[in-house]
Amino acid sequence: MKRLLLTVLLFVYAGSTLAAGQAVKAVHYQLGYQSGDIYTTGGTDSSVNAFDGSVTIPLVGYLGASVSGYYDHYALATNFESQGSGLTVASSLPHCTMIAKGLAANLFLRDPALGRVSAGYGEGQDMAHCQSTFLVSGGPKAATKSYDAAAQYYLRRFTLGVAWEQTRFNSLYRLDSDSVTGSWYPTDILRFDLSAYGQDLKNTYSVGLEYQPEFFDNSSGLWAAYTRRHQTVTSNIIMVGIRYYFGRRVNLLERDREYR
Amino acid sequence: MRFAVGFLRAAALLGMVAGLSACGTGNQQPVASASTNSLTFSVQSPDAATPAPLTVTASVSPGTVSISILHGGSAITSASYTLTGNTAQIVVDPASPSSLGAGVFHGTVTVTGYSCGNADCSQLVSGNAQIITVTYDIPPIVRYVAPYVALAGTSGSVIIQGQGFEAYPVQDVTFGGTSATSFSVVSDTQIDASYPGLSASTYPAQLPVQIVAPSSPGPAFTDPGANLVVVPATGSTYTPNGATTLISYPSGVTGISQLFYDAWRQALLLVANPGSGAEVLRYAYNGSSWVNTGATSPATVPNLVDIALSTDGNELLALSQQQLTELDPTSLSLDSTYTSSPVPAPSGVTLKNLAVANNGYAVVTTGNGFTSSAGTPAYLFAARAPGFSQPSSAPSLDNATPGASANGSLVALQQGDPSLASTPPVVYDYTASSGTFAATGATLNQSENPQTQSAIAPALDPSAVHIVLNGTNVYNNSFGYLGALPSSTLAVALSPDSNCAYTYDSSGQLLAYNLNAGPTNGAYPAAGPGTAVSPGTGGTIRMAITPDGGTLFIAGSSGIVILPAPLSQCQ
After folding, report:
1. Residue B190 and residue B325 in one domain
2. Do B245 and B206 share a domain, yes or no?
3. Domain end position, chosen among B122, B138, B154
4. Measured between alpha carbons, how far is B278 from B280 in angstroms, rounded to an integer?
5. Which tens digits make up the pLDDT trace of A56-72?
6. How far apart are CA B257 and CA B254, in angstroms?
7. Which of A119, B75, B182, B253 is the most exposed place for a label (fewest CB within 10 A)?
8. What is the CATH number of the domain that holds B455?
């Protein structure tokens, strides 16, 4: 908690000392819906439907903040082939329904011409609606607390980012991840992303794109992503989504670097 | 070109970072493992108790945040578990054999671990699962054979009742090891089989009736009570040189309301002194004479109204106005008592009569003492898992009187009384193969004896080819009316071959009627001269006949007359 307070104070100080700039041009709202499938080796498909939303607000100068939330509904496959047994089981319950939901807050410093540095805190909850037990809680629910820090460097039409995040279930179990992301804007309304993860999410790679067509009057964005987790069992995750942006009608590049 | 260069730059940077990130500590995707991947339950038969649960240990790899243990398939009712760290103790509860029936049943228990799919664990992904297959073997069972009495050296046919006969191809049916001459699987619960002439070194011989089926899921189980009891034909044993014997009741017995011949034990069973002092009276043949082997006291079965042997002949079902008591058929000692719960009889209604079907149930009727034509419930009583029940098809009947065929396939239920309703009510039947009651096409007002408040019970031959209701109306197996016996009939019995109806009428004579000859002007003529018989007058008369059809028993108010059946008159 002390670290969090210190980080906030640091951001406020830095933001106010660079008061000539502007981290967020105007308050920015967005809502999104996404749907996808998770294909796991040897098993049937899992599916996900999710909603998210966020609001980004200017604070002082280069200092901005955002609050975001998510609600994800999973139908996770259960009837995998048993390793080595060659068994397939049609009669078992094929899916386990799980819900993940949470809220997060971020403070960031941004110079639209240079880049962005952020820190955040979030809380979430995972809930199982089948005979599933979270090892960390011994029950069908598990609460999470997440801390993250990230930096982005804007280089003409490229954005290079690194991030670190720690998610804690309890004092015994935590998930540490770092990632690096490279984004490229071939046009002002199209962005490609490439990401790689490390630590506990090692061997996880993702490629994605977001397209904000002008014929929607710059109010909506379509995006898609493919993620591959290559571990003991390989998972391929394909997600597609749509985002609606309230208010400002700006192109994608400008939105990413000056509004959200 | 500009796009391609951009991609290459980004990819190069990502490649560098990816290489570094792969050196992290790593979080394996969950992999589940279990102490076994198969469980097997097996029991003796569908009637067996539910087997004890089995326990499996399963564990998931580190990095798992959640574990699900799901079960499917009919073999399993639940799979509960307790967690210790990454290890689960799973207790697998099998379904009850009675709920499944016979067969090979399957189920699965699936152990799956889930891990976080992204940094804040808002995304979950499944890991590999361990599947534990469950197999549950429940062999078929032979529960009953009816009629359970066979005559030595005489071929015959029986109905075998059980469960699981269609779960496997039945290869043979045996009677004490002797194959059936033919058999037919009628349904999952019934086999019709014919047996050759059977002999034994001692009589009666209890031959287990078994079905031969493929080894999986195990040999068919034969209930200890499912025996064909082979007895010697009595022929003229009870009536040497055609002699007629009169068994006089002990002092204090003034009348009877029921007579039963127990061919297995060569004994006669009666309900004596109907009313509040009713008791079961038993006479056994000792090789030369009939010996009174005892009686129940009225206190043992208070308000006794009717008796019948259970489907397998191992219990004497003694029905009183409020309860059913199981007695030992030989000693008449008390085995157990059951009231008509959980289906309580309405106020003012008492249990009235019973007749036994071949599926283990006794059809129990109720009545209001012929005080009104209001319908009262019909029940089923299960002798092997004792208790009353009331199936949805059970009708409300007006003081009904049941009668069953010896093979237990059919129970006829006549009802009503001319003094209560002018319109004759419908005759019902209970079919053992379907376990249901149904209205027949026949209508009839039974004639109640106002003195004894009892009617002449339906009389059926062993295979229910002919049915005589009210002692006078003869029907075929489908309750199609065939003709009438004299209205003066007081008691009736049908020969085992179904050819002959023997009556005792108010003139005090035993008469024979050839049912195959057909009626004349709607009435069956007597097949020969009558035989004067004096079992006593003024009360209920009941008749019984031996399985070989050679001997008749006529019980009245003063005793039991034992005489040769006039078989020749119907040939």
Report:
1. no
2. no
3. B138
4. 7
5. 999 988 999 999 999 99
6. 11
7. B182
8. 2.130.10.10
The last residue of a domain, from among B79, B113, B138? B138
B contact residues 379-408, partner A, Cβ 8 Å cutoff: none
Domain match, B308 and B348 both: yes
B424/B505 same-domain check: yes
B75 touches A at CB < 8 Å: no
Same domain for B220 and B244: no
Is B24 among the domain residues? Answer: no
How many Å apart are CA B35 and CA B55, to the nearest integer? 9
Q: Token digits for A242?
A: 């749509």
Identify the DSSP state of B539.
S
Same domain, B451 and B357: yes
Contact A131 B68 (CB under 8 A): yes
CATH number at residue B208: 2.60.40.10
Average pLDDT in the A31-45 region? 86
What pLDDT does residue B214 have? 78
Residue with structure tokens 């057909």?
B518
Q: Kindly tell me the burial class for residue B557, based on how many C-beta atoms sit within 10 Å of its own C-beta (0-12, 13-18, 19 or more).
A: middle
Amino acid at B80: S
HEC profile of B442-489: EECECCEECCCCEECCCEECCCCCEEEECCCEEEECCCCEEEECCCCE
SS3 track for B220-283: CEECCCCEEEEECCCCCCCCHHHCCEEEECCCCCCCEEEEEEECCCCEEEEEECCCCCCEEEEE
Tell me the average pLDDT across B286-301.
90
Residues B264 and B406 grouped into a single domain:
yes
Q: Is the peptide bond before B147 cis (omega within 30 degrees of 0)?
A: yes
For residue A180, CA distances in Å to A20, A150, A176, B35, B210 come to 30, 10, 14, 41, 75
DSSP-assigned beta bridge partners for residue B90:
B56, B81
Structural domain that includes position B404: 240-570
Closest alpha carbon within chain B to A178: B21
- Name the closest residue on chain A to residue B6, using Cα atoms: A184
Residue B6 lies in a domain: no
The strand pairing partners of A50, in sequence order, are A34, A72
Mutate which of B36, B39, B61, B124 to test chain A, going by most A C-beta atoms within 10 A?
Answer: B124
Q: How many domains is chain B built from?
A: 3
Classify each residue of B93-112 as buried b or exposed e, where b means 16 or more C-beta atoms within 10 Å of its C-beta: bbbebeebbbbbbbbbbbbb
Stretch A98-114: mean pLDDT, rounded?
94
Amino acid at B571: Q
Would the pLDDT of A90 be above 70? no
| Exposed / middle / buried, residue A5 (Cβ in 10 Å: 0-12, 13-18, 19+) | exposed
- Give the closest of B31, B67, B71 to A133, CB-based: B67
Residue B315 inside a domain? The answer is yes
Please write the tens of the pLDDT for every residue from B29-42.
666 778 888 899 99
Q: Which of B2, B22, B110 sits opposite A203 (nearest CB)?
A: B22
Distance of residue B59 Cα from the nearest chain A Cα, in angstroms:
11
B522-568 pLDDT tens trace: 999 999 999 999 998 788 999 999 999 999 999 999 999 999 999 99
- The amino acid at residue A116 is R
**Residues B216 and B271 placed together within one structural domain of the fold:** no
Q: Which of B505, B501, B481 is nearest to B493 (CA)?
A: B501
Domains and CATH numbers, chain A: 2-258 (2.40.160.40)
Evaluate whether ipTM surpasses 0.85.
Answer: no
pLDDT at B500: 96
- A81: nearest CA in chain B? B129
Q: What's the rounded Cα separation, in Å, for the pair B84 and B90?
A: 11
CA distance B406 to A238: 72
Q: Is the pLDDT of residue B169 over 70?
A: yes
User: Which amino acid does the sequence have at A124?
Assistant: G
Average pLDDT over residues B371-376: 85
